[in-house]
Amino acid sequence: MRAAHRLARAGGVIAAALMLSAGSVAAAEAWITSQLADRVSLVDLDGMNVLASVGVEGRPAGVALSPDRTRVYATAPEAKAVFVIDAGSRAVAKKIALGSGPLGIAVHPHDGRILVADWYEHALFVIDPRSHEVLARVTVGQSPSGVAVTPDGRLILTADRDSHQISLIDATTLTVIGTIPVGERPFGISIDDSGSRAYTANVHSNDVSVVDLAAGRTIATVPVGRRPYAVAIANGRAFVTDQYAGTVSVIDLATLAVMRTIAVGAYPEGIATGQGGRFVYVACWEDNTLERIDTESLIVTAKTLLPEGPRAFGLFVTD
Amino acid sequence: MMMHGHGGFRGACLGVAALLASAVLPAQAHGPTRQKVTETIEIKAPADKVWAKIGSFQDMSWHPAVAKTEGTGGNTDGATRTLTLGGGGVIKEKLLKYDAAGKSFKYEITEVDVKVLPINNYSSTLSVEGDGTKATVTWRGAFYRGFMNNDPPADLNDEAAVAAVKGVYTAGLQALKKALEAGG
Q1: Is B34 within 8 Å of A35 when comparing Cβ atoms?
Q2: What are the tens digits of pLDDT across the range A183-216?
């Protein structure tokens, strides 16, 4: 009895130690789609070096991670599929044939359902993370691109690029419960940690729409650099990739004005927050770099080379 | 900037496909995969001399396909130019970022028929590096294919777009090298 107890305690210690080490590894990694190279690469964000690169056909663009970080999902628009990568073995585990042009992707934070926006079918596909079957097809606006979910898991948002709006989808009933007009041709969409505001990067009007989700309306429009692509929220600031300008515009969320413009590599695209908001990471499509911005000093503090054409459209950082 | 000798793009089938494409699709669509092309060439000439030859946004006479450059705004960001090609096509372009000290400028195509150049949403950077004896010219572009919907016809697909832009870059850079190394 006592021996068993001691054993169980020892087991607990070992398990805790394993979790700790797994946690520390998972805390600082990124999965980056390199569209022109047909690869998805794993980057160690502490050392800023590529640990592994997985071949994925069909021009992978969007990326999302399962809540437990054991699975990586990459959309491949030209394969008309979503690929499931096993993060442990770093290999493709499954190809899910889907739609006509799957691009934007997110994962439900609680139940792991995979949410895929289809550019050509003007719909959001909802996929079961275990059976990989399509649970629902929700018609949204024209050419949905970015997808995001509120932290409480209740609301799914799509940026409907060619309808100049976002769609609000009830995550339980999977029905569209409303739309909100934003700037011209919204592409990336992000939601803050409190779930109160959403931000869209509007490719054509060169600005960011700030949407109050409770009020159901756009409360501010912030001009940024040319061809904004996506937004990451960290440290009370919104970081916006300006594709044509080759910059990241930093918006102060208290004043809703641009406080700094940071030069990065050419064609910055996917951007995501890491390490509890201490850094944001930017994939630069033309220069083939992943660049790390310190969210306090607003300086690029590290970069690493990636295979051709990194896009990383989605939440690509493990933590 | 379609080259002479790249006339294969002008077939009747392509004409129909191009009409279809421009009629049905929004010009700003981003559905397909963006492509990139980078071409470089080394020239045995001072970098300043190379830049003097290609650094004016209002003069693209160094490129053999360009018959005439007309524009306004000089080398100021936002300046525009219209290139008339020897083959008859027209390309309208806008200067995005001019960096005299860095010997580099970035521009975009604002208007071109896919029969002239089978691309969409094209932007490009032309830059010169080097010293007093030799220079490297880099020309890089980012663009989408001519057919912006799914399942493109062969003449308006990704490969056709890349081949066309490569052709433009290679022809221009080789002509530039030849002219400058000959003392021009």
Answers
A1: yes
A2: 999 999 999 999 999 999 999 999 999 999 999 9
> Across the interface, do A286 and B36 touch by the CB < 8 Å criterion?
yes
How far apart are the C-alpha atoms of A59 and A75, rounded to whole Å?
Answer: 8
* Chain B nearest C-alpha distance from A189 (Å): 16
Test A100 with B150 for CB contact under 8 angstroms.
Answer: yes
| Residues 6 or more apart whose Cβ sits within 8 Å of residue B130 | B43, B46, B47, B50, B136
Tell me which residue in B34, B36, B123 faces A244 most closely, judged by beta carbons: B123
pLDDT digits (tens, 9 = 90+) for A244-288: 999 999 999 999 999 999 999 999 999 999 999 999 999 999 999
Q: How far apart are the first and last CA of chain A?
A: 40
Residues 6 or more apart from A88 whose CB is under 8 A from it?
A70
**CB nearest B31 (choices: A120, A203, A285):** A120
Tokens 């409303």 -> residue: A178
Query: Are A203 and B30 a contacting pair at CB < 8 A?
Result: yes
Stated pTM of the model = 0.86
Asked casually if ipTM beats, i.e. exceeds, 0.90, the reply is no
Nearest Cα residue in chain A from B141: A286
